[in-house]
Amino acid sequence: MENSAGLRHAPKGPAPVVQVKEDVSFVPQPSTQITPVKNIIFKLVNKSRGDVYLPLYAQNVKNPKTGQLDTIRVLKGVYTIWESEQKDLKYDAKQLAKSRRSVKFEFGSKDNIALVKADDLAVEAMRILPMNVEVEGANKGSRFAFYEIDTERQAKIDSEKRARRREAVRLAEGQTFDKLKKHATYLRIRVLDEYGYPKIERALRNEYEDYAELDPEKFIASCGSKEVEVAFLINKAISDAKIDTSTHKGSAYWSTGGFICRIPSTEKAYDYLVEFAMNTLNEDSKTFRQQLENIGT
Q1: 83: DSSP letter
Q2: Are 131 and 43 in contact (CB under 8 A)?
Q3: Are residues 76 and 142 located together in one domain of the fold?
Q4: Helix axes 177-186, 201-214, angle to 10 degrees
Q5: In the beta sheet, which residues pair with residue 262?
């Protein structure tokens, strides 16, 4: 009976279609997040005992747009730093004084640093103000002297320095011991130990590679150069008493009596003899270098 009753009350025909209204109350919106403006960092050259306010003003500055001398004058609400482009301003002296801008270098925890928004006109002005020590002719002794700390540029410079250090160390590691000794002598690395004996190869290599890492530019520039070979021959000739720089003050002679050259009183004998031997325009220098090579063979 329950089954027949259930069928009797069941709806006739297909099941009704139920329509669901789409909820349009939430519509995704594009992101409105604002990327913060980067700060440019400037720092005073000479530390101050208090805050320093740098006036954004300077006369007789070359305007890169015109190539003519102009005046930098950064004013509140004015969107050019050049006085020549501010001709339509009808400011009197009092209005100008109130409108002129300055940048604060904070004393204390910030260590005389000024943070300026990258999109601020002050940045354009500060990069060409004569108080910026990177500008030609800047007065580095001024209390207003400053420089820009460019973290991206500094990171690139540091990366290049690291690459040069690695290059120098690789070059040092590839040197034969004979070449290493000559180059080490040129670089003023002591090849004798504290007891006067020649350093063992590993000890000298350690110092040689350390030097390459500490001063890669000088190391790379001199490694394998003709000057290194000449300097080694001169050092050896002096050590073996084949060159005499003490008997005749201010002069260098071969121990056999032949005159080499005069040595200025302001110069050290070894340094000057290397310089003299490397002079390719002087016939006496060429003769001296040939004599060195002859005794070195």
Answers
A1: G
A2: no
A3: yes
A4: 50
A5: 251
Contact in structure between 277 and 234 (CB atoms under 8 Å): yes
Tokens of 46: 């000479």
3 state DSSP class of 248: coil
Nearest to 161, CA basis, from 102, 100, 212: 212
CA distances from 8 to 3, 14, 16, 50 (A): 9, 16, 18, 98
Q: From 240, 232, 218, select the one nearest 270 (Cα to Cα).
A: 232
Specify whether the CB–CB gap between 52 and 143 falls below 8 A: yes
pTM listed for this prediction: 0.58
Asked whether the predicted pLDDT for residue 254 surpasses 70, the reply is yes
Q: Is 205 helix (H, G, I), strand (E, B) or coil?
A: helix
pLDDT tens across 255-289, in order? 988 999 999 999 999 999 999 999 989 999 999 99
Reading the block at residue 34, the tokens are 């604002």
Distance CA 137, CA 218 (A): 28
Please tell me whether residues 137 and 175 are part of one structural domain: no
- Residue 263 sits in the same domain as residue 242: yes
- Tabulate helix, strand, coil % of the chain (nearest 5): 40, 15, 45
Contacts of 281 (CB under 8 A, 6+ apart): none
Rounded distance between C-alpha atoms, residue 159 and residue 39, angstroms:
23
Domain boundary residue, one of 224, 259, 285: 224
